[in-house]
Specification:
Radius of gyration: 21 Å
CATH topology of the domain at 3-66: 434 Repressor (Amino-terminal Domain)
CATH architecture of the domain at 3-66: Orthogonal Bundle
Strand content: under 5%
Number of helices: 5
Distance between the termini: 60 Å
Largest sheet: none
Number of strands: 0
Shape: elongated
Amino acid sequence: MDLGNFLKKNREKAGLTIRDVVAMSGDEMDKTTVSRIERGERKLSLKAAFFFAQIYGIPLDELAKKALGAKARIHKVKIEKKKRGRKKGASK
């Protein structure tokens, strides 16, 4: 299920209209934005993700994983420690 459908299902499950979501966000989001996110026509901003997470009781990292899809994972890499400071014998 894509992010838009996921958010719409959560809104409907909570018995909320788009206008309810807008009001619950303190009018920080508008109904066009909510509708376009649910239809997949607009990407999820951090601000919108925060409000959806709070309104629907969904952890923010779950929304991030839905928004990012398969890219939402940390890759293990070998990190080499670099020496800090001046080289010996170097002058200012």
